[in-house]
Amino acid sequence: MIDTARPARPLPSHRGQGRLRGTVPPAETLDVAARRRRRAGRRRRATTDLLGILAWFSAAFAVTLWLASSSSHTVIGIGGWLTDAGIVAGLIATDLVLVMLILAARVPLIDRTFGQDTAIAVHRSLGKPVLYLLLAHGALLTLGYGASAGTGPIAETIALFSTPDMPLAYLALGLFVAVVVSSLIAVRRRLPYEAWHVIHLLSYAAVLVALPHMLSVGSVLAYGTWQRVYWIALYVVSLGLIAVYRFAVPVVVTLRHRIRVVDVQSIAPGVVSIHLAGRDLDRLGAQGGQYGIWRFWTTRTWWHAHPVSFSAIPGQNHARITVRDLGAGSARLGRITPGAFVSLEGPYGLFTSRARTAPYLALVASGIGITPVRSLLEDTDLRPAEATVLLRGTDTDQQYLWDETAELAQATDSRLYTMVGPRAWSRESWMTEEDVRRGVTLRSVFPQLLESDLYVCGPKAWSDLVVHEARLAGIPEHQIHQERFES
């Protein structure tokens, strides 16, 4: 149950790690800061909206280059129309595949501008259109060539296999279909992570296998044309970014900081804090609320990369992450022995104080979602009573890091509330049944909700309900920051 009349008393904890507050800045200074935050918010909204538009614009540009070429003006009969439609579908699909690789390359500029979560969301949203376009590409070309030659689809398919590069084209199509189908939510949930990851890596092979076919399609990509320049540049950029930021940079970061496990501490059933040591870890540039992609090099864990938030701000030679057992992969982390070598990609994410645009701060966390919220609170400069924190747990076993968070709230003079109990059964809600009956709302917990940046982290279904209520309350979209953890 939540007590909305007064903050919960701090839980017993070790010594707090938050910054002590000084004097309150003058009102005019706060007004300047508020204006800067609003301008930053407008810029972020504009750039985020642009991400999806740019992806499709690149595909439209590829088609425009083809339409401007001489090869697009020689349509003869139904076979010619079907063939050209197949070419357009293939151009769009291939362009979007390369854009998807760029979005998944974890490029720092994209992460700082849009956020890696937003980039991956757009990446996933393009999956189904690409699948449909690739299937249409193959079907339309087969029908178009068959109509022009006076043969049926089966005979034309057999004939195409005898032409140069076409077997590779069919192989690339098959690989792309496997990657997209395996990424559909209904399919992915049934696959072990390791199997899904191996299948997903086939996208790189598919792009490479399709390249000879792309560069040998007659006048479509003829020598000396702008089309050829565009496609080669797009291939080089997408595969180059993957090579640099997915492989080279993580190797450099890992070797530079030499991160190793020094202790694995159980803090609750199925939850462990992994304490890490390394060299100049404060130079990672990690901000409170960010996460890294961690790989622990032991015989049982080396093949599985884990996206896990920092649960404390890294110091010069130490860092900490806190992990909950959510499957076979994360369960193995609780059994890692000290001394294990660790590689890191990141840090990533915009779930940080830099994303703020409003004068107040509202933090809502459930379960293991406490980890980015706790580090965000630690890393944020706060005025007295500027922040309000709400911690949610199904039972007392889910109060991970609550004691530390309570002490940070006390050190920063922030309000802290706790809500413990199973979700309401009478209606769909993120609160307990008793709190629903008492009429508790986000507005009653956070009186300055509309003037606050709301940070929500927890299981997806639960956090979506919190965000839905925030939107109904009228909080502007750019003031909502959501980090979803799968339960």
The helicity comes to 40-55%
> Would you tell me the structural class of the helices and strands?
alpha/beta
Task: State the strand order across the main sheet.
Answer: 1-2-5-4-3-6
Please outline the major beta sheet.
6 strands, antiparallel, barrel
Indicate the low-confidence ranges by residue numbers: 1-30, 36-43
Order of helices and strands: HHHHHHHHHHEEEEEHEEHEHEHHEHE
Explain what the structure shows:
With 487 residues, this protein is α/β, with parallel strands linked by helices. The chain contains 16 helices and eleven strands. β7, α12 and β8 form a beta-alpha-beta unit. The chain is elongated, with a radius of gyration of 26 Å.
Concise description?
By secondary structure, the protein is an alpha/beta fold. It has helices spanning 27-67, 77-103, 108-113, 116-125, 127-149, 153-161, 166-183, 185-188, 193-215, 226-257, 328-333, 370-379, 402-411, 433-438, 442-445, 460-473, and strands at 259-268, 271-277, 291-297, 305-312, 318-324, 341-348, 360-366, 387-393, 415-420, 452-459, 480-485.
Characteristic terms for this protein:
five-stranded parallel beta sheet, 487 residues, disordered N terminus, six-stranded antiparallel β-barrel, elongated, alpha/beta, 50% helix
